[in-house]
Amino acid sequence: MTQKGIFQRIKKDWVIYLMLFPAILYFVIFNVIPIIGMKLAFQDYRVIGDNIWVGLKHFKVLFDSPAFFDVLQNTIIISSMKIIFFFPIPIILSLMINELRNGPFRKYVQSVIYLPHFLSWVVIAGVWISLLSPDSGGVNVIRNFFQLPTLDYMTSKDHIRWVLVFSEMWRSAGWDSIIYLAAIMKISPSLYEAARIDGASTLQQMRFITFPQLLSTVVVVFILNLGFFLNAGFDQVFNMINDSTISKIDILDTYVYRIGILNGQYAYATAASLFKGVIGVVLILSTHFISKRLTGKGVW
Amino acid sequence: MMRRFFKRFTWSHFIISTILLILSFMILIPILNLLAMSFSDPLQVHKLSGLDIIPKGFSFINYEVLFSNPLIVRSIFNSLFLTIVGTALNLFLTALAAYVLAKTEFVGKRVVVVFLIVIMVFEPGLIPEYLLVKDLGLLDTYASLLLYKTINIFYLFILMRFFEEVPDGILEAARIDGAGHFRIFTRIMLPLSKPGLATLGLFYGVYHWNEYFRATIYLTDPNKWPLQVVLRQFVVERDNTTLLGAQNVLSYEQVQALDFGSLQAGTIIISIVPLLVFYPFILKYYAKGTLEGGVKD
To answer: By percentage, how much of chain A surpasses pLDDT 90?
Structure first.
């Protein structure tokens, strides 16, 4: 196409550009400008006048600070715990739900286990604070029934990370099982028929047909989870953290919030979040390409 | 009777159903327990154990107190306002962009798509976003909440898929009759994509109803707070000063007679109710949309 032809087309399609304009304007203001704003990590913030470039000063402070490493360590531990203990649950759930006949009971089970996904973490924190309450919370009622001493989970350093893992399960296990259920639906029924003729039991069908067929979806979801490894769950921790447990569950995102928004150390907090962002992008891109190589599926 | 519930009755089916039934109770009982607490008589609520789902005594007092509190009532209206206006704005702008990207050809389309994918990967940090909102003079305004994530790129891609299903022939016919892009968009595209718009409306609606974090940072005036922020302060932070400070209906003695836990339970229930009302629709559309928009082949 000639140069003139392009201009004529642009002129002819002005309505299209006008319709796209609000979206582009929005993305430039609320996405591009904040991304450029990350340059603050290399500056000292000034309320009045221009910020001063200080190079890697904030990163040096960051990497010399024991607090930062505690937070990084917490993030990695919590993320790892979630991957190890939470990740298999939706898969198992989907296998179990698949065994139910399409009837009212299955509908009931699915509606109930999807429900917590739609509640905000504020509500979930409220529910769990009540559930784990030392006074009459459900968990302690059960503990007392088995003659175990009352335990205040929300303030217990030894248990709080497990509270994070289990409340995450409570919220997301059901919902996350949807993606596996969809994959199971796509498995050809003839495979099961053949297995039944060979005399395979339900468990054998699960083990030799459903699970192997499910594996590629499992790999994709696992790799995607790795890509978001440093997002250990801001909303969750933000609503469940307290002074007694802060040393165990303060993660990168809550740290950035605290030193940035609450303490006003904008530049230092931006450096911390840039560190997290860069690692995050590297993880997402590399897992995307690994996933493409392994399974032909990616993030986009 | 059993045959109605299982494909074929076997012990493994029985065990699986039992496990799933127990799991569903583990989700329902804590919520029903809060419901029971909120309807219990404050004087008897201490007898209610954490596993009970039937109120001890029966009383509306918690809700009377909560609904006579100007801050709570105000926050419910704030949340409704933010959810309705926010969702409408989200839908309109997302649909506009989705129409252009799904149904038109223009110079630079590829650049726009690549731009969107790049932006999807690079999440800007909290602080630059806060400083931007501050510099724009949006602190303590609803605009700070309404404008953030006006277009969720992931949702935009989902809506594009819905739009692509509208037959090109209809649009072509309209074009021949002399309709411009904007007319086609409002008169044909939007009416024909109601299921897609409903799906996305629910996505955005749930997001707005549950949003609390940005409201916590950007809104300092308690009268502007949405319900989730009030809930957070009251239930998570256990701070009842703002709440009881705004209380002008009850006397000090009456406040003393109330049970703090039951009031918290009532606040949680109030914030869940709208979700439950829409839950059947949310389930229907959300599950479908998530599957279609999920990991792509």
So the answer is: 67
CA distance A279 to A299: 17
pLDDT on residue B291 = 61
Q: Do A113 and B30 touch (CB under 8 A)?
A: no
Mutation pick from B1, B35, B115, B127 vs chain A, by most beta carbons of A within 10 Å, is B127
Residue B252, SS3 per DSSP = helix
Q: How far apart are CA A300 and CA A224, in angstroms?
A: 11
- pTM, two decimals, is 0.90
- What residues of chain A lie within 8 A of the CB of B275, using their CB? 118-119
Query: What CA–CA distance (Å, rounded) separates A207 from A197?
Result: 16
In chain B, which residues have their Cβ closer than 8 Å to the Cβ of A112? 24, 27-28
User: What does the block give as tokens for A34?
Assistant: 């904040």
Residue B1's pLDDT band (cuts 50, 70, 90): very low
Tally of CA atoms within 13 A in the half-sphere of A164 that contains its CB: 31
Please tell me whether the interface predicted TM-score (ipTM) of this complex is above 0.85: yes
Surface of B (9-38) touching A: CB under 8 A: 10, 12-13, 16-17, 19-21, 23-24, 26-31, 33-34, 37
What's the CA gap between B236 and B219, in Å, rounded? 18
Residues of A in contact with B26 (CB under 8 A): 170
The Cα–Cα gap between A246 and A254 comes to 10
Q: Which two tokens stand for residue A203?
A: 């468990």
Q: What mean pLDDT, rounded, does chain B reach?
A: 88
